[in-house]
Amino acid sequence: MVPLLCGVIVGAYILIYYNFIRGKQCKSDASLKGKTVIVTGANIGIGRMTALDMARRGARVILACRVKETGEAAAYDIRNLSGNNQVLFMKLDLASLDSVRSFCKAFLSAEPRLDILINNAGYHGAGKTEEGYNKVFGVNHLGHFLLTCLLLDRLKQSTPSRIVVLASYAHNWGNIDFNKISSPAESISDTLQSYSDSKLCNILFARELANRLQGTGVTCYSVHPGIVYTSIGRNMPSWIKALVITFGWLFLRTSRDGAQTSIYCAVQEGIEMYSGRYFDNCQVREVQPQARDDAVAKKLWEASERMTGLAS
Ligand SMILES: NC(=O)c1ccc[n+]([C@@H]2O[C@H](COP(=O)([O-])OP(=O)(O)OC[C@H]3O[C@@H](n4cnc5c(N)ncnc54)[C@H](OP(=O)(O)O)[C@@H]3O)[C@@H](O)[C@H]2O)c1
Ligand SMILES: *[C@@H]1O[C@H](CO)[C@@H](O)[C@H](O)[C@H]1NC(C)=O
Description:
By secondary structure, this protein is an alpha/beta fold. The protein is 48% helix and 12% strand.
């Protein structure tokens, strides 16, 4: 009786694992020799596994990270694991628009090309950016908005080139209220709302960017990586963290598997016609009306230009 029950449980888990947890793998074997890739937040989690894959394909990979020590350690590990020595750390703190500007200045003066930009870094928690904006909105959307705008000419000079924006299924709970989108959150439920809102911003940003990039040879895609066992919940209440530590390794996707849709959007041949769309499980997906509202996307772009000082 007991062995039978164990067999059924193990069998059920294997079925669930291969059908729901692991997710689809990117099958493209595209080489990235001679290409340059930036991955933000590449010291850990999904970004780290994405950067490792890009390095294994032969790309020159810039790990754009907040902390020098962990960024350099990741660059060392990725060089070692991939056997590719063209992997380097460059300092980028997305919670500071000055840091974004200095990163871009350093990158543009050192690197002649940019083929793939992966806006992967993400933050959930309290606090403000250096400019006083809601930190979740600032890191997840506004910092990446400025980063992308400042690097756009280099992407246009390196076509065909791509931009991948890490969004989330959580965008479904998001909404955009221009009166308070950038105001700091007060409570944990506010930070969760800000997170969903920022992920909706990511999807609308990719849509509007794709519209503006039509005909340039630069395409962009937003991505839901799956529910992945990473440290994105580090500022969650401790009972949630305890649950994730206890069961996460069983029921959540690994970072390696969570990186597959980002990798797919970065390298898969023939997806250019889907520029501006949202991908999940290495497939283009329909989104709810609020995530394809082009009027709001345009308004968000203009508001972001004002907040980053790009609009005069
Ligand atoms: N995990 C999931 O289930 C899931 C689901 C949907 C979407 N996503 C998205 O996937 C992306 C990657 O997240 P993850 O799950 O891999 O989380 P993670 O392991 O916590 O990695 C987050 C990365 O973002 C970086 N970051 C945070 N604040 C930053 C800042 N101010 N400047 C520069 N970098 C900063 C972190 O750097 P430090 O380590 O230095 O703080 C870290 O490298 C995020 O955009 C997240 O929203 C994740
Ligand atoms: C990676 O590191 C190990 C030891 O830490 C070393 O033996 C190996 O040669 C390194 N591989 C590369 C490609 O540098």
